[in-house]
Amino acid sequence: MEPAELIARFEIFDDWEERYRYLIQMGRKLPAFPEELRNDTNKVIGCISQVWVVSDFVDGRIQLQADSDAFIVKGLIAMLITLFNNKTAEEVLAVDIESIFSEIGLDEHLSPNRRNGFVAMVSRIRNMAQVTT
Predict the structure, then answer these.
(1) Quick check: 121 and 80 in contact, CB under 8 A?
(2) pTM assigned to the model
(3) Of the candidates 21, 79, 96, 127, which lies 20 to 30 Å from 120 by C-alpha distance?
(4) What is residue 54's three-state secondary structure?
(5) pLDDT value, residue 45
(6) 20 assigned to active site
């Protein structure tokens, strides 16, 4: 999904309670995450919640799988998968996630701990992409 489309989806909702519900709904739609991938190697460091992310590259495009034990964090990782999945490494690295984060309003409506976790998830995905460049 392109950033403008994601931003437009969030702009449909009038208040943050509705936006949080949409974020949680995004997380619930993630495919099941294999239990054997819930390990320290795949864990995102810097998140208070448990977050696991794995990647593979198919035909030069990143394929992400992720999960979290917290509803909103799971929604955040689903949002990142929506933005980054099936992109080349160069496309992943070019996404201005800070701008998207701000336009959606997450910079004002997430706790500092969730914000730090979000930054850690983005960093993890970018690092995965850089391995292939």
Answers:
(1) yes
(2) 0.93
(3) 21
(4) strand
(5) 94
(6) no
